[in-house]
Design brief:
The protein is an alpha+beta fold and 47 residues long. The protein has a domain at 16-40. Helices cover 40% and strands 17% of the residues. It has three helices and two strands. It has helices at residues 2-7, 21-24, 26-34; strands spanning 14-17, 38-41. Strands 1-2 form a two-stranded parallel sheet. The chain is globular, with a radius of gyration of 11 Å.
Length: 47
């Protein structure tokens, strides 16, 4: 939230992450949606 508020990124931002539990949680998904950010995750085993 702090990074978003400081940088004020353009619309259609994509947040790319691994498949960690903190990034796949419903709560985090709702937070991204509230900011208009689209989630993107790598494949399993792709380092």
């Amino acid at each position: 939230m702090k990074a978003y508020n400081l940088r004020q990124p353009p619309k259609d931002l994509v947040f790319h992450s691994d498949r960690g539990s903190q990034y796949t949680s419903k709560q985090f998904g709702k937070l991204l949606s509230s900011y208009g950010i689209r989630a993107s995750m790598g494949d399993v085993g792709a380092c």
